[in-house]
Batch of 4 targets.
Target 1
Amino acid sequence: MTGRAAIAVLLATGCGAQLGGSSGDDGNFETTDAKVWQDAAIDAPVDARPCMGGTAAAVAPDGSCLVFVMTPVTNVNAKAACMAMNAHLAYLKSATLDAFAEQHIGMTDAWIGATDRTTEKTFLWDDGTALGYTNWGDGEPNNGGDTYQEDCVIIAGSRVDKGWDDRPCDASEVPTSGNFAYLCQY
């Protein structure tokens, strides 16, 4: 039996499959059992990589991986850092996922993947979908009291009630703002 055939036998028998043609002869691997070999990985998860990275990583209730990075950066740099790990800024599309994310980041303010850059006061996730669930803090979003632009969203982890807050995406409008930790998701 060739090395490839031996691997196919191990994979197939571990799944309860039977190899060979109707005669039970396993010498016809290339034609009869090739289907078992080709399909052996179909049941494997699409994204089977471990949940790790950043300052802290955790598997969320929806099965996604949330990677928290404590280093403060601009929104654009946070998006780029998430993309570098084949992820995106977190889309917190349910109360359960949002509560988990808030607990995960603790007392730190962190970027998530929502913005109203395209149309003021219409926040969307970075993938273009509408915010079906929101968790705005009291008085938010407020666009900086309309004195400057706050187009990007953070979880306001430093607040007692947490919640979301619109903030400047970088320090160009408000020199003391625009750099936060971030939460990636994959």
Note: The CA atoms of residues 77 and 179 lie 9 Å apart.
Target 2
Amino acid sequence: MNPRRVTLSCESRLDHVELLGRAVRALCTAAKLDSRHCAQVELALVEAANNCVRHAYHLEAGHPLEVAFTLEADHFTLEVTDRGTPMPPHGTPVLDFDPSDIAN
């Protein structure tokens, strides 16, 4: 099966995120995921899209927000894209523990 891709676009508004979530749930249903997994994917998408609106666009409407759903034979991918403020870089945390100490 060739990959099939659906791209959803909306304005950076929290009240539009619900529509994205419903559309992604419908795509998951069409991809034959069970209802529990559809709900989990919808929740993950809503969280990611809300973060874009809140943090990348600082709740300012009028900016682009896109979700790409790509269905392949044995899996699918979701990509959430914005053009807002990027997250600040975080360094790799230094872990100070003794792996032989099972209580640690």
Note: The mean pLDDT is 92.
Target 3
Amino acid sequence: MRLFQSFLPFLFLAFLFSCQKDETANQIPEVIQAQNVDPALQPYFEEFEYQAALRGIEVDLTAANIIGNIQEITEEHVAGQCTYGAAIDNEITIDQGFWNSFPQYLIREMVVFHELGHCYLERGHREGSFSNGACISIMRSGLEECRDNYNSSTRSDYLDELFSDNN
């Protein structure tokens, strides 16, 4: 009997631990964050890759070593910029003031995608407007008179244009 009593705590612990639910069994694997991308920009980078894939284009921003950060841009009226060159990795910077002032996902997405259009897709600016005054591309420079019309209804058309071969 004494032998049984000495094993009783071990049996209880073995039962307790063997019956616990494995909390990691049904979890979706965590996406590995790119090392040089601000965590606030990471979802936009992932969405850019996803939207490209929907259009048959393979994009790997991590392999391309695209850097993304949010910090103050001293130039007025600039929401984002892409810096690139032989000595510099492609780097997008989103202005901290813009980021704080426009928390809406689609507005931020348009600016991040515009900069990734420069840094990854190597797209230049595309000016012009539709007859209703809306910009024809999110790759506009902002120097021409057109109205941004990037919203949930027009998003797909703008992204088709962004990822098209005709540019």
Note: The first strand starts at residue 67 and ends at 71.
Target 4
Amino acid sequence: MIARSTHQTDAVLETLHTLGHATNKQIWFEVSKLLPGISLTTVHRATHRLKERGIIGCTPNLSGESILDSNPEPHSHFMCRDCRNLEDFKLQP
């Protein structure tokens, strides 16, 4: 059973695809430019549903904070300790 999608969830997903990797707060900051009344709680609920449905992934950063990932497939990440930029990392066989 596929849950219905809302315009808020669609905006959250589109924003995450644009950013690649982001926290809920980063997503909220960007989505609120398009939907000024959206709350951080709404973003959190939307990303939770998207994770449960396997549409997005999630990984911790160096401080243990959850980073949402537009790529739900299993893969590794590289995070720069200085700028904290997170990049997908594929090991070659």
Note: DSSP finds three helices and five strands in the chain.
